[in-house]
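Entry 14. Ran structure prediction on the chain below.
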Amino acid sequence: MHHRVITFSRNIFLPLTTVCRNRCSYCCFRTEVHDRCVMPPDEGLRTIRHGAGLGCTEALFTFGERPGDMPGFTTELAKFGHTEILDYCYSLCQAAIEGGLLPHTNAGILTFEEMERLREVNASMGLMLETTAEVEAHRHSPGKVPEVRIAMLEDAGRLRIPFTTGLLLGIGETAADREESLELIRDLHRRHGHIQEVIIQNFLPKPGTPMEGAPVVSADEMCATITMAREILPDDIAVQIPPNLADARRLIGCGVDDLGGVSPLTIDYVNPEHPWPQIDDLQDLAGGATLRERLCIYPQFIERGWYSPGIGPLIKRLHQRIQESRL
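Output, structure tokens:
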């Protein structure tokens, strides 16, 4: 058996807004429109500068899906000189690139044209499939209809965007649903070759949400799903777990390849009660495997040139820096 390598990305997390058109039963990230619901540009720029100084290579941009659909949001965004959240995201992506960080945007459902535009300033992008099943937790979430998410994953492939997706376990799906979801991701990748990593994420109940009393997915279930993912997915797709939500030390032996984005600066705003492990502690989690830093765009996509010309020089410079740090 070849020696195991576990990878991770050093990132900053920039939630541009918590306003979202979806109302998932398990979410504590979403808020209604209020007078501080948009991250001010100076906070974003300060985080970018600080993150670059700490050696981060990835700027993860997230926001609630289609916040502009919510009454009053456009007025809040206009305070910062923008009429559309995607314009604001685009401008901060440009600032991240200028500051030496590669943007990775996870914005919920986007059209083909919106992704095509954001591709100009993103090294990679993402959308969690979560599940192919129709579950009660998504009843008030138009963006969580499985067909809608699958269509966007397909579009990302047509656009040759290095892409992250994943499963959310414990939201009402069955083991058979998980298998179907993984097979669907495999088939998308066979058609387009664009899936670089699949996150196996365990839902953790949040106080004050409709699913606060939901049962927690056991470590054995997590392990079984990771093992199934590694069996179903092609070898060139990494299987990732979030090390602040799952017991990485226990689960790495089940077939984990990657620990995702870990930040030395910002919290996990979607799961604020679960702090990141210290980067210095990741090797301990990886056990006997070699821990290796990576960019948010995986090496095979760098080799294929799956990026826009505007971010090519930064990708090559950061890739070189990471290669040299291993010597």
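The first helix runs from residue 41 to 53. Will compare against last week's run tomorrow.
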